[in-house]
Design brief:
This protein is an alpha+beta fold. The strands form 2 sheets. Strands 4-5-6-7 form a 4-stranded antiparallel sheet, with no helix packed on it. The protein has a 3-stranded antiparallel sheet with strand order 1-2-3, with no helix packed on it.
Length: about 190
């Protein structure tokens, strides 16, 4: 038997009676309270009509998919090998391809459609073209410079036009040349 039980059983009767008096007063307060409003509320809730429960949504059957990787590229091998093979195919194809090792010039950052020829200037008996970029900057170009996103090389400049030859992708792994020009607009 624990010490607490010994104290309770053998303890002072006055203390035990005090605990019982406090407990009975606390419980009598709960019992004597008026709970009629609570009883009425519960009755009103039970008297409400029962609502219908919506049916469960229909389960859609999903057909299983069988993955067949035959003939597809392995996603765990590096893409560089695939690019090398396309550049080899391009070299074998028609021999036309851009020089990927060449350092890009400033006007190659802009699509050709956003560039405008705004004039020409003669310096040391050379005719230079003036090209306005999309950002508002005017650039001076000469024959041999590159402009546009399609590796466009300037082949001829006249007072009202800049002619260039672009190298554009044709079929996968092959390239072709196409002529383009910028006409004087301002």
């Amino acid at each position: 038997m624990s010490i607490n039980k010994i104290v309770w059983l053998g303890g002072n009767k006055a203390i035990r009676l005090g605990y019982l008096a406090i407990l009975s007063i606390g419980l009598s307060a709960c019992v004597n309270e008026d709970v009629s409003d609570l009883t009425q509320y519960i009755a009103s809730i039970k008297a409400r009509p029962k609502g219908a429960i919506d049916p469960l949504p229909e389960i859609k059957v999903i057909e299983p998919f069988a993955f067949k990787p035959e003939g597809l590229r392995d996603p765990f091998h590096a893409m560089e090998k695939a690019e090398e093979s396309t550049s080899i195919e391009a070299a074998i194809g028609n021999g036309i391809k851009p020089d990927f090792t060449r350092r890009k010039e400033e006007l190659e950052a802009f699509p050709l459609e956003t560039l405008k020829m705004v004039g020409t200037v003669v310096m040391k008996s050379n005719l230079w073209g003036l090209v306005k970029a999309d950002d508002g900057t005017i650039h001076r170009v000469k024959e041999g410079n590159y402009i546009g996103k399609n590796y466009g090389k300037i082949i001829h400049i006249v007072t009202d036009k800049i002619e260039l030859m672009e190298i554009v992708p044709d079929k996968p792994g092959t390239w072709r040349e196409q002529q383009a020009s910028l006409v004087l607009t301002e």
